[in-house]
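Backbone shape codes:
===
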Amino acid sequence: MDRSRFLRSKLSLYFKKTSFLTLICGILFFSASFLKSDPYKEVEKNCRKFVSDNISQIKYRLKSSSKIIASAITKEEKIKTLKDEYRLARKFYKEIEFFIEYNSSYDAKYFINGALVPKFELEYLGPVTEPHGFQVIEESLFNPAKTNFDILQKEYALLDAKFFYLQNYYATLPIEYSNLTEAIRLQVIRIMCLTLNGYDCTVNKESLTECANSIEGLSKIMGFYTGKKNENIKLNELQTHLKKCEMELKKNPDSDSFNRLNFKIKFLNPAYTLMSDFFSEKKVLPSQINYGVDLRANSFFETSSINKQHFLLYKNDTANLILKAQLGKILFFDPILSANNKRACASCHSPAKAFTDGLPKSISLDGKSTITRNAPTLLNALYQKVFFYDGRVSSLEGQVNHVLHNNSEMGILEIEVINKLNKSEEYKTLFKNAFKEKPDTSINFYNILKCISEFEMTLNSRNSRFDKYIKGDNSKLAQSEINGYNLFSGKALCGSCHFFPLFNGTVPPMYNENEYEVIGVPANADNKIIDEDIGRQKFTHIAIHNKAFKTPTLRNIALTAPYMHNGVYADLDKVLDFYNAGGGAGLKLKIENQTLPFDSLGLSKNELTDIKNFLLTLTDTSNIPKAPVSLPKFKDNVLNNRKIGGEY
């Protein structure tokens, strides 16, 4: 090869390498520029710093509180100064509560901001955990009878250690865009359903201040977002609205007289909608997590905003649900499912009585005695994670299964009910059609449970006068009813156990657990002795659950008398009097572990009337189905004479 050809070859190779390196460098430069300009990276960085700074402030206040206790000032001065430090620590916590509850819910519940009751969860199978955190500190500071500096020192130290751990954990925790978006939106619901109702400040009743602090935290985190012009317009609109929310809370310092219903309708739900619109504009899609809240809805007041799929056991079995529910309805009213062919599910859950039976305790299978508890309504039963008063099963299918097997209720075995149904050609055809997508279309026990539970899933009742009012029809509620709701969610603290908008004990916004309360229900309406039913303890064998019962729904309460797990009170007035007196403890009944957060409510007769009037607005019978006009035929004429809905 001559010298010129050699040089040309070398130069060509050089330029190829140079071009390749230039291309690689260009790609790297472009990637680096893109990453640098990614606005979410700044949001993530600022969010991480915001959370860390607030934790530092909380830790500072906790350490300062410990020093105050150890100082030589008087007890009165200590308590006054400690209250100020507590309020500051709570402010910094509430600002970042959205982040901690989303990323560290277990720590929040058990060690930071859990309720003032011992805790035991079957899922964790651990020991009983005594309450710790802010609410223990609040009780000790704001209830003179409970002030204990030794307890306070212990709680300050434990809380400081927990925040030290979280601060280090959050330093490297990935903060995904969609997850942060969800945490922010879920916090609005937490404020609406829990904080505003005094859920975590039942002693000092400073819920309005805490709501303002939470909203201020959301405003700060939203301030980290920037984007295109149209996105910033929506962001500015949201920020302006959040500031209005803060101002509305701060200009109304009296918690008892604050119009919570108006605030939810005109301030909180619009804030939720504005957030939904903003994140939709930024094309932030919800994650695939099956939350209790359907984050695709942009209003929390719509029925669809609470995700029914979240509460199901078999989440993927979704084919032919209408046919399955129709078959389930027939089975629900058919006494063929009982051992004596005389009892149906509808015997104790009648549509005419909002799917209860109107008795203190339901009639047993023998037709003479009664079972041990009152029949609860099945309307909105799907919005629960546990069933029965003691929470012993965790699915609608499990609830049906238990009733069928219970000797006092339906008293039948799986093989018996399957064999009976297989003697009907009509039933075999109905099952074949309902399960035509399945390899097995026969009558089997799973298919029976599935159909009945799907029918129960259709028993939605969320179109009451109250629901129409919060959706914008101002003609639906009278002033007494509005006052009643504000008392219910404020002064009377009912809303701290019966959570808006379902008014049951399934805890929003995650809807992963049901609450149980020990309220000291008496055995008789004369309120002389405590009821002997040990409640949840029979299932868990844990002492703290002695006489604990699941918090039931208050929807359709006008139709579901008599009340309580034992049907002891025939009317609502007696129920309200019971709570106003302070539950069993207020009635001087012997009960060691009552969980009601008050000694007595001190409500006037007019206030009790207002609360009752509000409760009556929760009635909705618009979706109650009628009984089938006929039942499937059998070759046995005796069976063909069975009564729709059962004989008793």
Remarks:
- The beta strands are 516-517, 549-550.
